[in-house]
Inverse folding.
């Protein structure tokens, strides 16, 4: 991938005004994207300036009146076309994501196809999104009707860039909003290609694409012409967005960091539990919002569980050579690896033991091994903060009640998993854990359409499912009485 890709994918898509601005500010700063597997250059993209941010918002505003009046069925039809375009380009999107973020190609392809499916889902759900009639007087009509917010900004992450962007952008435009999408600066080429595919289908200005770093995102989040900011990413950035939105009056829709616990109860098969823990902690090198970040295991099966978990960690390798080995890609960049290793080193200084991994490998790229830590105790950074890497810290507890209490004592509130043979414990856990999603006897999975609300430092609002359409609209109450005519 060379810099010619950036030349074919301008920073602001679909606006002649922005083209003029870009020509007048030639030679500005660019983003260099490197492959985290080997450090090779993927490409460069230009960083949008403040003038281009203004131009993007102006373009989205100009397209809004016509788009919000477009028949909902027509909006759905166009989104179905966009879904087909994304599906056809899934392998191209996956290849770009693989090179920009290091995500294994098969996982990246699954994410791209999930994104196409999400667009198709909202293409069907959007035209069915409805208001509500109210029971008023006989001589009046009363109703509640959803209306689009206006200009929606979608700030999306690098760990699942296609699927998440398709959800936010799809729900926004199908409900009559126009959208500005800024993909993560760690995978701008993936985001630019996705936006190009969708922009080719939608009318000009309905989706506007911007590239840049955190400063560009901050300018968008605090722009007075933006009515809603949807962000998936770090808690620190989410807080900043919420503060900006409070000043401009925009709505903030946030899914931020998580520190998801896994409870392993007495009575479950320890080897099965270790398989579940490994999938939760090591998939995508632990770089999933709902990755397993901390493990509480009952003392009676701790030894067998830890031994099996260590064996699972050893199976995760950089370049699989045997059928039993599982590919694990690098972390997204060296900076992320440094943060992950700092958590491991802090745990070791505080008394934890490294059973597997825990060392920065030699050579290029941002690889980090699947790591299992034992003898972990409350207060360690690796248990208190989101590590976002392939690290499985194990805390041994005396009983389920202790594990549940410690798992619940956390400032985040994204998700949690419970492995238990006890229906009583399962019921207690899903009711007591202060998180948006509880999974019993499976670290991943669930029926389509689930839409949880993160809590605490993990954010606010629905980020998925049919309820995301509610987040992208606001309700207006209408009372229509009969007019009086003639003289009294």
């Amino acid at each position: 991938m060379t810099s010619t890709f950036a030349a074919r994918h301008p920073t602001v898509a679909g606006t002649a005004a922005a083209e003029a601005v870009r020509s007048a500010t030639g030679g500005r700063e660019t983003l260099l994207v490197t492959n985290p597997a080997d450090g090779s250059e993927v490409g460069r993209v230009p960083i949008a300036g403040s003038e281009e941010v203004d131009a993007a918002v102006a373009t989205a505003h100009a397209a809004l009146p016509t788009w919000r009046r477009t028949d909902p069925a027509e909006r759905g039809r166009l989104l179905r076309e966009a879904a087909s375009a994304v599906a056809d380009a899934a392998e191209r999107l996956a290849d770009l994501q693989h090179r920009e973020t290091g995500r294994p190609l098969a996982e990246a392809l699954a994410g791209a196809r999930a994104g196409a499916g999400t667009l198709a889902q909202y293409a069907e759900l959007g035209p069915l999104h409805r208001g509500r009639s109210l029971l008023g007087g006989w001589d009046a009509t009363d109703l509640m009707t959803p209306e689009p917010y206006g200009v929606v900004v979608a700030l999306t992450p690098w760990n699942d860039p296609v699927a998440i962007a398709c959800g936010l952008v799809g729900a926004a435009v199908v409900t009559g909003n126009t959208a500005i999408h800024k993909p993560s600066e760690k995978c701008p080429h993936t985001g630019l290609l996705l936006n190009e595919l969708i922009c080719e289908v939608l009318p000009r200005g309905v989706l506007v694409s911007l590239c840049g770093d955190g400063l560009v995102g901050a300018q968008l989040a605090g722009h007075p012409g933006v009515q809603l900011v949807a962000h998936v990413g770090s808690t620190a950035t989410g807080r900043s967005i919420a503060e900006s939105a409070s000043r401009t009056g925009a709505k903030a829709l946030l899914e931020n960091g998580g520190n998801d616990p896994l409870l392993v109860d007495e009575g479950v098969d320890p080897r099965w539990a270790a398989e579940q823990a490994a999938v939760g902690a090591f998939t995508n090198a632990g770089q999933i919002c709902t990755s397993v970040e901390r493990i509480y295991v009952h003392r009676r099966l701790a030894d067998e569980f830890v031994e099996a978990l260590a064996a699972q960690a050893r199976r995760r390798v950089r370049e699989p050579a045997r059928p039993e080995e599982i590919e694990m890609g690098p972390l997204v960049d060296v900076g992320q690896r440094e943060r992950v290793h700092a958590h491991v080193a802090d745990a070791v200084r505080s008394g934890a033991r490294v059973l597997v991994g825990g060392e920065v490998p030699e050579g290029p790229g941002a690889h980090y091994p699947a790591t299992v830590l034992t003898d972990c105790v409350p207060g360690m950074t690796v248990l208190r903060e989101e590590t976002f890497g392939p690290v499985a810290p194990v805390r041994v507890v005396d009983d389920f009640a202790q594990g549940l209490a410690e798992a619940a004592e956390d400032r985040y509130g994204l998700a949690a998993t419970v492995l238990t043979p006890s229906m009583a414990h399962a019921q207690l856990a899903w009711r007591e854990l202060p998180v948006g999603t509880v999974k019993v006897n499976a670290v991943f999975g669930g029926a389509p359409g689930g839409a949880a609300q993160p809590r605490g430092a993990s954010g606010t609002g629905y980020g998925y499912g049919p309820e995301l359409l509610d987040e992208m609209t606001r309700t207006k109450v209408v009372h229509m009485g009969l007019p009086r005519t003639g003289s009294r």
